[in-house]
Specification:
Blueprint (H helix, E strand, L loop, with lengths): L4 H27 L4 H12 L4 H4 L1 H7 L5 H27 L6 H22 L15 H13 L3 H10 L6 H32 L14 H32 L4 H5 L1 H19 L3 H17 L4 H33 L2 H4 L2 H25 L4 H10 L4 H13 L5 H24 L15 E5 L14 E5 L8 E5 L5 E4 L20 H13 L2
Antiparallel strand pairs: 1-2, 2-3, 3-4
């Protein structure tokens, strides 16, 4: 079945316009040293009912019609963008596991999750949840979304902000990323429970459970919740060895011919497992990224490791060029601030979210012995909700858990809190003298030059290098210009002084080494 030429032309025009506007707005935000993802959302917002729909409604309907091939095609691309974002986020979750002060991380993570979540759940008693519920939402599921929206934190947005501010080598950055990692894992598990409850109450049985013929709400709900949790429990520890087994198999011609295609196939396979089980596909994408990245990081063969790095680089470039911007721009395109944003409720929810999250993080940091200034910086940084907050909004809205009003509030909350964190960290001088090497080695922050000594770092990106040796072999972190942060395990140390921006000896090498050691020992 072919698409009529007129419908195909309309779809291609819509994709091109949305892509150009998303990248243009993202570029503006990048120049302003703000998260590009926020610019991509605002780009879609400009083309949606909030702006273009008000100024030129006929043009908006002509460009993005409500029916036909165009909305279906954009929906498919946005869904692929969400899956690729979750796949890359799974790799990021693996990379964010860094060693730092465990007492601070534990205290901040626990207080920063339990107190905001509890406050969010308690505040629902003051709100008519039916006004924010979707067709499949219940009082419990909407309340859980309400509470998680208060507690969630974003790894991608925080890592991007810290990249722009040259903070990734600091002890402060290590604490923030470690706490955000723990909170994101809890988010995915909680989201699995919410969607399981929603599917059970909706009565829309699909996949394995449909074979039983059971339609009772109680058993159906129990199945989806248990299936989601078991899927996480099984694939978190077993996904990496499973991927490694398939990748090294002599019968795996796809890995030998195209490592990129094999990783995509592995992603689609786990997504299809989720579809068969009847649980949300994003969990398969997250665990596929976690498993594949873990197996690649443990690969000892240098040739296979280099091929895997190139495969990830290709996947990331295509995803960040096409699919992910279309997903975030699509989120902005769906926002209707005129009809679905109650200013009074949003301000109240913003104050609740920022107040409880910041206060709980500050309290945890102070109880762990951090200085008031460090505790304040942590409180502001971990208040950014970014991508995970937006994913929470879009996935629960698609599942019919929440309605348009709460969806709009959650997305705008993610945008505003990310901007607050970026502006604060940019002007507060955070971590100026807190460079802490991972593993106790030397730190080097350089500009990537593309192929060559810094191979793997696209031109204009920054590479944080730990210890001697070329980037990609020494430890440290690479953060791309779009969204993701990647960490590399350091090799065994063999000495060597601090390096300058060209890989040579730092002009004041001995003194520089002593300064770095003194900073590190004083943490």
């Amino acid at each position: 079945m072919s698409i009529p030429s007129g419908e195909l032309a309309r779809l291609l025009v819509a994709i091109a316009v949305l892509l150009v506007v998303a990248h243009a707005a993202g570029r503006v935000f990048a120049v302003l040293r703000q998260p590009p993802v926020i610019g991509e959302i605002l780009g879609g917002l400009l083309l949606g009912p909030s702006v273009l729909g008000l100024i030129a409604p006929d043009a908006a309907k002509g460009l993005f019609p409500a029916s036909g091939v165009t909305p279906v095609g954009l929906g498919v691309l946005a869904e692929l963008g969400l899956l690729m974002l979750m796949f890359l986020s799974g790799r990021e979750v693996l990379g964010a596991r860094t060693a730092t002060r465990r007492r601070t991380v534990a205290a901040v993570a626990v207080s920063g999750l339990v107190i905001p979540l509890g406050a969010g759940l308690a505040s629902t008693r003051l709100v008519d949840l039916t006004a924010f519920s979707g067709p499949h939402g219940t009082e419990l599921t909407v309340a859980l979304v309400f509470g998680i929206g208060v507690a969630v934190t974003s790894i991608p947005v925080i890592s991007r902000i810290m990249l722009d501010l040259d903070l990734l080598g600091t002890r402060f950055a290590r604490i923030v990323l470690s706490v955000a990692l723990l909170e994101d894992v809890v988010l995915y598990v909680a989201l699995a429970v919410i969607l399981g409850l929603a599917q059970g109450s909706a009565g829309s049985v699909f996949g394995l459970w449909s074979l039983t013929g059971e339609t009772g709400t109680g058993l159906t709900t129990a199945y989806y919740v248990v299936a989601s949790l078991v899927f996480f429990a099984v694939f978190m520890p077993l996904g990496r060895p499973l991927f490694g087994l398939f990748a090294r198999s002599r019968f795996n011609f796809l890995e030998r011919r195209s490592p990129t295609a094999f990783r995509l196939t592995f992603l689609l396979a786990l997504v299809l497992v989720c579809v068969f089980l009847g649980i949300n596909p994003i969990f398969g994408a997250v665990l596929a990224g976690f498993a594949a990245a873990g197996a690649d990081a443990a690969e000892e063969d240098s040739v296979r490791r280099a091929e895997a790095d190139r495969a990830w680089d290709a996947l990331k470039k295509v995803s960040m060029a096409l699919f992910v911007p279309l997903y975030f721009a699509g989120v902005g395109l769906q926002l209707d601030l005129v009809h679905h944003l109650s200013i009074g409720f949003f301000v109240a929810y913003l104050l609740l979210a920022c107040g409880t999250k910041s206060a709980s993080v500050w309290l945890g940091a102070r109880l762990a012995g951090e200085r008031p200034r460090v505790a304040t910086d942590l409180a502001v940084a971990l208040n950014a909700r970014g991508g995970p907050g937006i994913v929470l909004a879009t996935v629960t809205r698609s599942a019919g858990v929440i309605g348009e009003d709460l969806f709009t509030v959650l997305v705008v909350l993610s945008i505003v809190t990310s901007q607050i964190a970026g502006l604060w960290l940019q002007h507060a001088g955070v971590g100026a003298a807190e460079t802490e090497p991972s593993g106790g080695g030397n730190v080097e922050l350089v500009r990537g030059k593309g192929p060559g000594p810094d191979a793997g770092a696209p031109a204009g990106d920054r590479v944080l290098r730990d210890g001697p040796g070329p980037a990609g072999r020494g430890g440290g972190a690479f953060v791309d210009r779009d969204h993701a942060v990647q960490f590399h395990a350091p090799p065994p140390r063999s000495g060597g002084g601090a390096r300058g921006p060209r890989g040579g000896r730092h002009p004041d090498g001995d003194q520089h080494d002593r300064d770095l050691r003194r900073r590190h020992d004083g943490q």
